[in-house]
Specification:
There is one protein chain. The chain is of the alpha+beta class. 18% of the residues lie in helices and 39% in strands. The chain is globular. The structure holds zinc ion. Zinc ion binds next to helix 2.
């Protein structure tokens, strides 16, 4: 079982690791700081540096559900390392930190817009949630001041683990209807922003909401009959 170091410390930028498999331009490690795409958050990019100094470019990270491995996808034409090779895995921190800021911003958006969430997605420069709500209920200025007040309040975030059984007993903890919480280990990870938001989430978040920075509601638009999409971006 691969050790997912970002779950306990999302601020870890690099780690030493050993190659457990390498095939089809993808490398699996025994431990990693790379976040695999999931829950609307993109996979990390970065580099794998071998002991001989050779550096391999990682363009994306995916979870292989069949083998339960985290696959570090190499840029084309790169020769994968041998199984057993030791290396240093390092993520593109600026990109990941923007994902963490915008991901945490979506939790704040959940607290401001009180409606069922039907989907969501995070990119480097913007993030959105889809709500099942009437258009008239979504007022740009009100949402913007709401999320920025929560940013400025400096709320701390924390990770809480519950058993699968506890989660089944608390369906309110699953906010995003289209994204099943990561199960299979007998326990599920929750992200808590005390007094603001609590929900099942496997992504990476900032420790303090002030780290997000000022937010802008970039767009509110209708996406089909039920979905109203609210898109946030970071002001600067
Ligand atoms: Zn989250």
């Amino acid at each position: 079982m691969v050790e997912l170091l970002y779950r306990d410390d999302p601020y870890l930028k690099a780690c030493e690791a050993t190659v457990v498999a390498a095939r089809d331009g993808a490398v699996a490690l025994d431990r990693t700081v790379f976040y695999a795409m999931g829950g609307g958050q993109p996979g990390d990019s970065g580099s794998l540096t071998l002991e001989d100094g050779r550096s391999l470019r990682v363009v994306d990270t995916r979870r292989d559900s069949a083998s339960d491995e985290v696959l570090h996808l190499l840029a084309p034409e790169q020769v994968p390392p041998a199984t057993g090779a030791r290396l240093r895995a390092e993520i593109d921190w600026t990109r990941r930190h923007r994902h963490m800021r915008l991901h945490t911003a979506l939790h704040l958006l959940c607290a401001v817009v009180r409606a069922p969430v039907t989907g969501g997605r995070i990119a480097e420069d913007k993030a959105h949630l889809d709500f099942d709500i009437e258009m008239e209920m979504l007022v740009k200025a009100k949402i913007e001041s709401g999320v920025n007040a929560l940013v400025d309040a400096g709320h701390r975030t924390r990770t809480v683990w519950v058993s699968d059984a506890e989660l089944d007993a608390r369906p309110d903890l699953v906010k995003t209807m289209s994204v099943a919480p990561p199960r299979g280990e007998g326990r599920v990870r929750l992200l808590e922003i005390p007094g603001v938001d609590l929900q099942a989430c496997g992504g990476t978040h900032v420790a303090d909401t002030r780290e997000i920075g000022a937010l802008v509601v970039a767009r509110i638009r209708s996406e089909g009959r039920r979905n109203r999409r609210v898109t946030l971006s970071i002001a600067q």
